[in-house]
Each structure stands twice: as C-alpha cells, then as structure tokens.
Design a protein that fits this description.
Blueprint (H helix, E strand, L loop, with lengths): L2 H17 L3 H9 L13 E9 L3 H8 L6 E4 L6 H10 L4 E7 L18 H13 L6 E6 L7 H14 L2 E4 L8 H7 L4 E3 L2 E2 L6 H18 L1 E6 L3 H10 L9 E2 L2 H16 L3 H12 L2
Parallel strand pairs: 1-2, 1-8, 1-9, 2-3, 3-4, 4-5, 5-6, 7-8
C-alpha cells in the first residue's frame, strides 16, 4: 500500500469513527488536536433569574446587588421598574421583561396584562408598550402565563414581536403543557426554559433544598437554570450561598451565554458542522 493509499485509508477509518461518536465527542475532537476522549474540565454552570422585580425598591436593590451575573426579570410600569433596570444595567446585569400573561387560576395580573380575549392588534400593542416601558432589555419571560403559554395564536403573536425587536425568550414553564419554547424555536428566536423553581414554597428549608437540587442538576447536565423571586427568604439564601459557588466547584453563567450555547448545540444536532469535521480529519490523518 503506497503512502497516498495509506493516508486515504486512515482518513476513511477516522471518518467512520467520528460519525459513530456523540455530538459532544465529535466537537471535542474537532476543536482540538487532543485525543477524542479528552476529559471535560469545565465547571458545572448555574444561571439565575429573579422574577417580579419592580414593585419593591429595597428588595429590588438587594436583587441588583446579588453576586455574579444574576438576571432580573422586571414587571412593566411598576413604581421602581425603570430605576432598578438602570441600576442593574450599570452593574452589568442582564434584563428581561417579565410579561404578565393570563393564567389558569384567574389570578390578577396587574398593569400590562396579556390575555386570550385580546384582538391581535390589542395584544401586540400591549406587548410593545410593555417592552418600551423598560430600558436595556435583552428579552422576555412570562409572568404566570399557565393559560396563555398553551395558546398557539397568542404565542405566535408574541414571537412575531420578539423577532421584530431582536429579543430572546425564556419559558418560565408555569405549565408543563407550555408550547412557548417550541414556538420560539419555529421563529428562530434564541430560547431556553426553566429547570428549577427556587421558592414556590417560601421557607428557608425548601429554598435550600431547591438550590441544592439545581446544583446536582448542573453537575449531571452541565447547566441548570433556576428562577426565584425577591422574597426575603430567597434573597437571604442567595446572599449567603452565591459567594460560595466558586469554592464548591460551580460557575455562575449569564443567561445570554446559556442561551447562546444551547442554540449552538441545537444547530449542531440538526446539521453537523462539516468544516469542523474536515478539520478533524485533516489534523488527525497527518499525525
């Protein structure tokens, strides 16, 4: 077998081996000249969103000053929505509109409510007004919304506005039957959904348990997105535990980075990057 034939044969073997690997293994091999089974040394990543910001100034300020890249989800047209958004932005925090959406329990939504009895123009006008009421937004998540996030029509209207405004979407998953994330993906909007609710029971014991549950999930999957609220019990726990995360082997990850990485992984699964595959074949066959 001459040199050229040997080289071709090795490349074909490697190609077959690479395509038998999971996507993560494929990208590890493509990105470096290290062995395919190089150990992943990245720390598990935790992303935190605090909802319902804007009604209370003192709790809002405590939220703004939480350690690390905590995202604030701000209710529209509340007494402290704008001032807290500006202060958070100055500290480099990322901001979402916490859009009030109709729920199954008929709980009051307050100013800026989005409901299923609105016409298309009423719905879009209210959503745009909500977006325009808060500076520095990078996206939206749903406040309540256990009914509205199951509605195809209203979720399409929502994503049309977000697409026009170049905003991302986080599905808070207040209903396991939510279709919101799937509709966002159809519009090619950067999106992710909540993993853990931190404080739907407002006791220190329950909040501590949910926080540790998120860390375990991050250890297992690489990431975890938790959502909490500016309750005194929640803020007390986060103020105590967030400074300890690094020593415990975890990393706080900005929401934008989580969504970016999930989008890249989704595209990779749909269509493997042939350039990276070619690079891997070339670098390995020459060794």
């Amino acid at each position: 077998m001459n040199v050229k034939t040997q080289s071709t044969y090795k490349a074909l073997l490697l190609a077959g081996f690479l395509f038998s690997l999971p996507i993560t293994g494929l990208f590890t091999a493509a990105a470096t000249s290290s062995p395919v089974f190089a150990k992943n040394t990245e720390k598990p990543k935790v992303t935190i969103i605090i909802d319902d910001v804007g009604n209370n100034e003192s709790r809002g300020l405590r939220t703004v000053n939480l350690k690390g890249p905590v995202t604030l989800a701000i209710l529209p047209d509340r007494p402290y929505s704008v001032s807290l958004a500006n202060q958070a932005h100055q500290l480099g925090k990322e901001l979402l509109l916490h859009a009030p959406m109709e729920n199954l329990r008929d709980m009051p939504l307050g100013v800026g409510a989005l409901t299923s009895d609105m016409s298309a123009s009423q719905y879009r006008d209210q959503l745009i007004k909500n977006i325009d009421s808060i500076p520095h937004l990078m996206g939206l998540n749903n406040h309540m919304g256990s009914l509205l996030t199951t509605k195809h029509l209203q979720m399409n209207w929502t994503m049309q506005v977000l697409k026009d405004r170049n905003l991302l979407f986080v599905d808070s998953r207040t209903n396991p039957k939510s279709i919101a994330k799937e509709v966002a993906m159809l519009y090619d909007i950067p999106t992710v959904s909540r993993d853990i609710f931190l404080d739907h029971l407002r006791t220190p014991q329950f909040i501590a348990k949910q926080f540790e549950k998120c860390l375990k999930l991050a250890t297992k999957n690489g990431t975890c997105l938790m959502i909490g609220h500016p309750y005194p019990e929640t803020l007390n726990h986060l103020e105590k535990e967030l400074p300890k995360l690094k020593k415990r082997g975890y990393q706080q990850q900005p929401l934008s980075q989580l969504i970016r990485n999930e989008g890249l992984a989704r595209k990779a699964i749909r269509k493997p990057n042939q350039t990276r595959i070619s690079t891997a074949l070339s670098s390995n066959s020459s060794q």
